[in-house]
UniProtKB/TrEMBL annotation:
Descriptive protein name: FAD-binding PCMH-type domain-containing protein
Keyword Oxidoreductase set for record: yes
Lineage: Eukaryota, Viridiplantae, Streptophyta, Embryophyta, Tracheophyta
Pathway field: Cofactor biosynthesis; L-ascorbate biosynthesis
First and last residue of the signal peptide: none
Protein's organism: Aquilegia coerulea (Rocky mountain columbine)
One GO molecular-function entry: galactonolactone dehydrogenase activity
Length: 407
């Protein structure tokens, strides 16, 4: 009985479903067959649009909050402000106890909290002793002119810039004893009054003597020794043996090693240098090429006390600089110029004429009158427009820099 009722109910449902389905009109031909599906999905699409709208406003809110935080942490608070934000960003200002040290060319840089500058030998000895007791690394650094950054160390550095005195000058032996922090220019100026100078040094004179000795710096000239070979004796501050003095007579082996020790055998505190009589040099500069230099290189090395080449790679020309002492009985040598005065000024004169041609006659006359009023040059009058080109020669004899007033 129950089974018959269930079958009857199922048939009635199928009949009713078929009847309702048959009453639905077919979709028009121009309408997309997926129209009913889109109508059925209309409610979820509305929900997605609302969620997208909510996400958009959440993003705006997050952007606003982030901008406010960034402004707060990057705001330049005054020095006396009671409230200062924490350093939040990577490029925030360095702490007061953190030193940023770089070499002269800016190719190497370190940041350290230990950068010490003693004023005398006792302070230097204490610095080295304390670093040894605490097992801390420390490295002497000079003016930082080495392009390889040899003196830079993050663990700690000691600089002798405040130990820059000339301690003793022996005029008879032609020696000078100095503290290692003195710069080359200061040393040369200091011993000039004693009639002495250094045998050789580099083109840049900002190096500290301790640094230029320890790295084996040199100047020019095949017969002249580098700086480390001009040293007679040195005073070293070491962590193990304390302060010791080395020379050819005292600890000759250590002296030989420490002359160019790169700061690894101790901190150089004082240096005694062998000097020479003060003398004048005549510099002769000219332009050559690589083929000519290869041909005459050995000859020029033997004939000149100092010689150097200034060459830009991948170019054909080389600037040659020769320096030789002035002969006391012959006086300065006289070099025959390669070009006459007119030939040397010809290109500049042509450039001046080209500049004048860019100006109309009236405007040029106004410029001349203005220059005459301000007293920049002798009175010059240009009568006709054709005189503009011809005026180049006479103006050039009055004032060579006159043409630059028109730039």
């Amino acid at each position: 009985m129950f089974r018959a009722a269930a079958i009857t109910t199922r048939r009635s449902s199928q009949t009713l479903l078929h009847h309702r389905t048959s009453n639905i009109p077919p979709p028009p031909l121009h309408q997309n067959p997926n129209f009913l599906h889109r109508q059925f999905c209309s409610t979820p699409s509305s929900s997605s649009a609302k969620e997208a709208e909510i996400r958009k406003y959440i993003g705006y809110t997050a952007l606003l909050v982030g901008s406010a935080i960034a402004t707060y942490y990057s705001f330049p608070f005054p020095a006396d402000a009671k409230h200062k934000p924490a350093q939040f960003f990577k490029y925030a200002p360095l702490p007061e106890d953190l030193h940023s040290i770089s070499n002269w060319s800016g190719t190497h840089e370190v940041q350290t909290r230990v950068f010490l500058q003693p004023e005398n030998l006792q302070e230097l000895e204490k610095i080295v002793h304390d670093a040894n007791e605490k097992k801390q690394r420390i490295r002497p650094v000079g003016s930082g002119l080495s392009p390889n950054g040899i003196g830079l160390l993050r663990a700690g550095m000691v600089n002798l810039a405040l130990m820059d005195k000339i301690l003793e000058v022996d005029r008879e032996k032609k020696t000078v004893k100095v503290q290692a922090g003195i710069r080359v220019q200061e040393l040369v100026d200091g011993i000039k009054e004693h009639g002495l100078t250094l045998q050789n040094f580099a083109s840049i004179r900002e190096q500290q003597i301790g640094g230029i000795v320890q790295v084996g710096a040199h100047g020019t000239g095949a017969s002249l020794p580098p700086m480390d070979e001009q040293i007679i004796s040195m005073k070293l501050v070491t962590p193990a043996k304390g302060t010791i003095e080395v020379s050819k007579e005292k600890n000759p082996e250590l002296f030989y090693l420490a002359r160019c020790g790169l700061g690894a055998l101790g901190v150089v505190a004082e240096v005694t240098i062998q000097c020479v009589e003060k003398h004048e040099l005549v510099e002769h500069t000219f332009v050559s090429n690589i083929d000519e230099i290869k041909k005459n290189h050995k000859k020029w090395l033997n004939e000149n006390k100092h010689i150097k080449y200034l060459w830009i790679p991948y170019t054909d020309t080389v600037v040659v600089v020769k320096c030789n002492p002035v002969s006391k009985w012959r006086g300065p040598p006289k070099f025959k110029p390669k070009y006459t005065k007119d030939e040397a000024l010809q290109q500049l004169r042509e450039l001046y004429v080209d500049l004048l041609k860019k100006y109309r006659y009236l405007r040029f006359q106004i410029q001349i009158n203005n220059l005459n009023k301000c007293g920049c040059m002798p009175v010059l009058k240009v009568g006709t427009e054709s005189d503009i080109s011809n005026s180049a020669k006479c103006v050039f004899h009055f004032e060579a820099s006159f043409c630059f007033f028109f730039l």
